Amino acid sequence: MKSSSPRRPRILLIYTGGTIGMIENPETEALQPFDFDHLIDNVPKIKMLNYVIDNFSFNPPIDSSDMCPQHWEEIARIVETNYHLYDGFVVLHGTDTMAYTASALSFMLENLRKPVIITGSQLPIGEVRTDGEENLITAVQIAAATDRHGSPMVQEVAILFENYLWRGNRATKRSADNFNAFKSHNYPELAKIGLGINFHEDSLYRLHNDEPFKVHYGLDNRICVIDLYPGLRREAFAHALAAPDTKGVVIRSFGAGNAPTNPWFFNELRQACDRGLIVMNVTQCVGGSVVPGLYAASDAMLAAGVIPGSDITTEAAITKMMFLFGQGLSDEEVRQRLAAPLCGEMSIPARNA
Ligand code: ASP
């Protein structure tokens, strides 16, 4: 008689580097990326899961401070090539730029219906008190989890860190030393990790179409970010807006999207928008939203033609711009798509009545 034992979940681990796999350089005592074998040898418990776990490693693995759009394309290509061979994907990544990678992948992996779970750790996996072992094992379990219909529980790019699973394009690194290093200030957690993994099914992303999975490459990084601050000089602002070969700018404004009411600020911005620069307004606050027109101090932005970014994170705004500029769209199409959610990265823009 044939055995009816359930099929073992198939997970692909993609190791890019980061603290989780680092070791100390004996001469400088600084942490540096190390190979995948060292990492996995330190997690013998992973075999208890009885999953099929294969791996792909960046060569060499990197500190995530060196992450760039070419690396996002490499990760996306690995997911695309293996999409039908695995139930889920776990990306091991440094924490420093994890939220950027999660955001970029969320835009690049269109119509994703499988989990892409990104994790890492604050302490290397070889350390006695490491958080890496638990994060890795929990991420693999989440990547294998199914709902009551047998479909993947998570069908989006998400960050698993310590006690929470966050939507990738909503998360921000909020602490350089706390084990709960990530948070999404404007969107609830997708799961809470305690004794069990408690998924919040109402918060999980679900597609409402039958379109096939499609990976987009060719990000265009001709953008820049300007942080507003009291005392910002006109020359510095104008210089940043006129940086050669720049197509888009993310302005990180005050509070609900406010900016200086000086006429020079408006004039510089207006001229830049008239030259064809695409400018998006996001708030410097970790929580809350840009609300155009709530204060007179946001009028200049609106009147100059700046796109309000609702409650999008800076990480998602930057990668969304790079993504859209790389898709061969007209400026008008880019502007329209920046103003509305593509894959759960922002709430429907608030309008001030
Ligand atoms: N510098 C490290 C990285 O992002 C920090 C970490 O992984 O926590 O690669």
Written overview of the protein:
With 353 residues, the chain is α/β, with parallel strands linked by helices. Helices cover 25% and strands 22% of the residues. It contains nine helices and 18 strands. A hairpin with a 3-residue loop joins strand 12 and strand 13 (197-199). Helix 2 crosses helix 3 and helix 5 (234-241) packs parallel to helix 6 (263-274). It is globular and about 70 Å long. It starts with 9 loop residues before the first strand and ends in a 15-residue tail after the last helix. The mean pLDDT is 95. The protein binds aspartic acid (ASP). Aspartic acid is lined by residues 17-19, 63-65, 94-96, 120, 122.
What can be said about the biggest beta sheet?
Answer: 8 strands, mixed
The count of strands amounts to 18
The stretches of 5 or more residues where confidence is low (pLDDT under 50) are none
User: Which H/E pattern describes the elements?
Assistant: EEEHEHEHEEHEEEEEEEEHEHEHEHH
Helix content: 25-40%
Small molecules held by this entry: aspartic acid
Mean pLDDT: 95
- Shape label: globular
Q: Would you tell me the structural class of the helices and strands?
A: alpha/beta
Count of helical stretches: 9
Q: Give the distance, in angstroms, between the N- and C-terminal Cα atoms.
A: 69 Å
Radius of gyration using CA atoms only: 21 Å
Tell me the strand percentage band.
15-25%
Give the neighbour order of strands across the main sheet: 4-1-5-7-8-9-12-13
